[in-house]
Amino acid sequence: xxxxxxxxxxxxxxxxxxxxxxxxxxxxxxxxxxxxxxxxxxxxxxxxxxxxxxxxxxxxxxxxxxxxxxxxxxxxxxxxxxxxxxxxxxxxxxxxxxxxxxxxxxxxxxxxxxxxxxxxxxxxxxxxxxxxxxxxxxxxxxxxxxxxxxxxxxxxxxxxxxxxxxxxxxxxxxxxxxxxxxxxxxxxxxxxxxxxxxxxxxxxxxxxxxxxxxxxxxxxxxxxxxxxxxxxxxxxxxxxxxxxxxxxxxxxxxxxxxxxxxxxxxxxxxxxxxxxxxxxxxxxxxxxxxxxxxxxxxxxxxxxxxxxxxxxxxxxxxxxxxxxxxxxxxxxxxxxxxxxxxxxxxxxxxxxxxxxxxxxxxxxxxxxxxxxxxxxxxxxxxxxxxxxxxxxxxxxxxxxxxxxxxxxxxxxxxxxxxxxxxxxxxxxxxxxxxxxxxxxxxxxxxxxxxxxxxxxxxxxxxxxxxxxxxxxxxxxxxxxxxxxxx
Amino acid sequence: xxxxxxxxxxxxxxxxxxxxxxxxxxxxxxxxxxxxxxxxxxxxxxxxxxxxxxxxxxxxxxxxxxxxxxxxxxxxxxxxxxxxxxxxxxxxxxxxxxxxxxxxxxxxxxxxxxxxxxxxxxxxxxxxxxxxxxxxxxxxxxxxxxxxxxxxxxxxxxxxxxxxxxxxxxxxxxxxxxxxxxxxxxxxxxxxxxxxxxxxxxxxxxxxxxx
Lengths: 486, 211
Ligand code: SF4
Hints:
By secondary structure, chain A is α/β, with parallel strands linked by helices.
């Protein structure tokens, strides 16, 4: 990595700047900018209080047709029959249904064929498009930046504001270009790339910034890989992460239910192409990475920045910057890991493949390529949760569900599941999980003392069949190339 | 928990006892564990504030200690409120009784979520935060006076004497809190003409929307 600080200059001519300028509504007395929101995605967890506040204020939904709902966080993944076994979960979904009906908002509910994790379904329906502003009451909204949209997570009172006014008070971010060049090595995926970036720049490195991901590595990534990358920008502190729209973006969008068609498609492509950061674009700063140097990456600690190559050892305090040492000390204790211990070979109890980071078809293919013809190790519980109903259908059409089942994985219904364990899928006690999700905070997966190792879906599958953290590159070569799976 | 009413109108200052919470990167999962998110109203969230940390520390957590009962100012270290954007975190703190937070630094979304509730998050020099945390620990009964206009915090203690530290808040949020404009919904709704003009020039709302 090389860093090059722009020395206080202000970005201009970037996709971020262009989209920001187009969506400006007014300057606010408080100093922020009122920004128009092109697409507002809502779900059952962060919307009920916002609807309640709207009612208290006597306001209605300003643009119900630009508000789209689904249910994901609390849905059970074993039986999705209603009413749910958990009365609280049932109440949350019932409240969302009532609010959507009352305000004329489309809800892609269970069994609609379109339900799933909000950050999986909006792209696959073609709702997320280049040049839009996208907001959702969920931090991983940065996912939609993969399309060249400016997408960010908001809190519940901001959900209320967007419902009421289709706009938000925002402050402009600085733009950092993350330039990645070269081919990802065999066994190295978009997940490893973003874990590597966060490891290098830190979990606070992106605070106040939008990350523009650019360079030959990014240009070669599929849309699903770009989504994985942008999804975790927020874990590096960047509220917004995006890639410039290109032919890969357009090919993904064409023919999706909400994508433009006919003449409108041509006009849309012309406009989308004009948004990309051009050669004249000025960035606040730039950081470079060489893809060839990246290894399959695993987190060993309690923040997504505590990642290491699978062939590395848990860092010792001396190897860390002084300001990283207190959180490392906390992580050694919580994870029960010794500084200097190798991460490969660490036994795991639970393996989870899914989430808005890695619950898409290509993720399931990568995991299935490892699972095929192998068996989940004795004592390990492994399960696969497709990111959406559409992902589930596509995976089943390819027979991936059978591959997983034969290997001893459970094949579940779509939802967020053990990414944050608001449903019945959770760790117990001090169990260790190998997880394709995005957060390894203490207690994240449903047990206050549960431990999470973040890694790519292929690495999770490798851990499942060997019962321990395993370098996916030691498994047969043809199975583990991101390029071959594109 | 404190008996301070929820913020309403201008917040030019705040007076109250304080509670030091030492540690960097305290994320929103710790402030309010995910299981407390299963609710359709924010009522009742106070009990969930730091629930897992409190269980782990079996009564030794600052939120469980008698000397901090009724405190309304939280004094934290760096990157407080990182992690999930859940607004349940500031809601849980507000419902527990917190009306202002002073710290070395805050996660952006957490800062914004607090501002939207009328709860200022003020930053201070790490050295000053440490001094303040020590002074509070030495005399938990002492009152803090937080002046959002002068941007300083004063501790009035019979035991450790009076002391004063500068705090920082960007001019925008400062103006919003001091003037009572932190409740921005009505300002956004008021610009409907400008909103229509913006919508009219967005290609995807005119040339090719399928929504
Ligand atoms: S999968 Fe996880 S990170 Fe993604 S929206 Fe669901 S809970 Fe949030």
